[in-house]
Amino acid sequence: MSAAPRVVAAVAAGKATAAASRLTGRGGGTSLPGLVAERISPHLLGDLLAASATRVAAVTGSNGKTTTARLLAALLTGEGLSVGHNRAGANLARGITALAVSTASWTGRLPDGVLVAEVDEGALLEVTPQARPAVLVVTNLFRDQLDRFGEIYAVADALAAAAARLPADATLVLNADDPLVAALADRVSLPVLTFGFDGPDSLDALSSAADSIRCPRCRVDLTYTRVWLSHLGDYHCPSCGFTRPQPDVAVTAVRVLGSDRTQLVVRTPDATVDLDLPQGGVHVAYNAAAALAAAAALGVAVPHAADSLAGVRPAFGRLETLDAGGRAVALAFAKNPTSFNTTLHTVMADGGPRHLMMAVSNTGVDGEDFGWLWDVDVEPLADRVEHVTLAGLRADELATRLKYAGVPESATTVVTDPVAALDAALALLPHGERLVVVAGYTPTIQVREAMRRRGWTNRYWQS
C-alpha cells in the first residue's frame, strides 16, 4: 500500500530541506527538516511508523545518551539490521521527526528495522505518543540544567509519565545502579531489563556531586557498599528495604587504559562479552552495558558485538582527539558536575591534564544556574596542571573556583572569548604535549567550529 500523498510530500520537503541545509553550510539537516515536514503533515512521525514494521529504541537520561545510542546503532548494524540513528544528537521532537524523514524512502516508506533515537529527557513526553518506542533506555539521572528541568525528582516524574504512555509490550531498560532510575520499575507496569556493574570493587566515592543518595520510596539516606560512579553503586535502604536490583546485563570487570581505551567484560543473559573500546572512562562501560541491554530487549542476538563496538570512536565533543595543526587537542563536552568530574578523572588516567582549557557560559542553551561548578572536583588539578586557560561567559567564576581549589593564579589565564582562548592555550602548549579542552555546550560548538574552519576537523554532525 502506498503512503498518503501528504506523507510523501512531507518526506520530500524534509529531505530537500536537509540537502539544502548541508549544501549551504547552514547546518547538518538534523532538525529543520523535521520542522518543515511537520508543517505539511503534523503527525508524520506516527504515520510513518504506523505504516511500517520499524521499531523505535529510545535512549534518554542525563548523561551518556549520545554514546549509548551510537553503541546500540553499531551493535544492530553489525548484526545486519537496517538502522536509522540521529547520530548528530538532534534529540528534541523535531530532531526525531527529521530522523524518520532521513531514514524513509522518497515514497514515504520506512525500511523494516530499528530507529535508534536519542531523546532529550525534556522532550520524551512529547515524542512518546507518536514514536511509541518498543524499548526505552534510561541511562541515569544527574543534576542538569536546573533552570530547565528542575531537580532530579521532577525529571524522574516526567520519565515515569512518559513510560506510562509506552505500548503495553514495550520494555524499560533501566540502570540498576541509579536508585531513582531503578525505582521507575515500581511506577510502570511494563517489562524491565536492568544493566549495571557487578563484581568490581568501588571505583569512586560519594561526594558533594552525588545527587541521588536517598531512598526513592522513603527518603532515608541509602547505605552504599560499593560506588562506581558518583551515586551509581550497590545500595540499599536501611529503613524500608528498597535495594538495588540484580543487573540482567552486568559489567563484571573494567580497566580504563587512558582517555582513549577501555577494556571490559560484560555478562548478558545469553553470553559473556569481552570488549575493547576506543573510548576512555568508567562511564563508557555503563554506556556499553546499556547498549547491550537494549539489544537484548529488542530480541537481537549480538554475536559480533566485540567487532561492532571496536570501531565506535568518541562522538562529537566526547573526549575526541583532534589534530590542531600538528598539536593534539582532546575536546570534551561537560554540562554538569558528574560529566565534568568523569572527564577530569578519565584524562587523569593518562597522567594529565598538564595543559587545560575550561570554558562555561550561562546562555539559555547551556543553563543559567552555575552554582554546580562548586561541586566539580577540581582540587586534584592543583598538583597536576601546569597551565589552565579559562573562557566563556562564566570564566570569572571558573577562576574563583580554581583559586579556592589551590590552582596557582600564576598558572591561570582568563580569555573570555573561547576561540581566542583556544589560540592562547595552543600558543602556550609545549611541543609534544596535549591540550585538554573541557567546555559547556556553547563554548564547545564555538571551539569546534573554529577548528573546522581551519581544516582541523569535519563538521560536528559528521563525527
* Sheet with most strands: strand arrangement: 2-3-1-4-5-6-9-10-11
Instruction: Give the proportion of residues in helices.
Output: 25-40%
Give the class from helix and strand content and strand pairing.
Answer: alpha/beta
Strand content: 15-25%
How far the N terminus sits from the C terminus, by CA atoms, comes to 37 Å
The oligomeric state of the chains shown is: single chain
Just give the CATH class of the largest domain.
Answer: Alpha Beta
The total number of structural domains is 2
How is the biggest beta sheet arranged? 9 strands, mixed
Uncertain stretches of 5 or more adjacent residues: none
Question: From the 3D coordinates, which CATH architecture of the largest domain would you assign?
Answer: 3-Layer(aba) Sandwich
Work out the number of β strands.
17
Tell me the name of the CATH homologous superfamily of the largest domain.
Mur-like, catalytic domain
Secondary-structure map:
Layout: H1 5-24, H2 32-40, H3 44-50, E1 55-60, H4 65-78, E2 83-85, H5 93-103, E3 114-118, H6 124-131, E4 135-138, H7 146-149, H8 152-163, E5 171-175, H9 179-182, E6 192-197, E7 223-229, E8 232-236, E9 249-256, E10 262-267, E11 272-277, H10 282-297, H11 305-310, E12 318-323, E13 328-333, H12 337-348, E14 355-359, E15 387-391, H13 395-405, E16 412-414, H14 418-427, E17 434-439, H15 441-453
Parallel strand pairs: 1-3, 1-4, 2-3, 4-5, 5-6, 6-9, 13-17, 14-15, 14-17, 15-16
Antiparallel strand pairs: 7-8, 9-10, 10-11, 12-13
Helix pairs in contact: 1-2, 2-5, 3-5, 4-10, 6-8
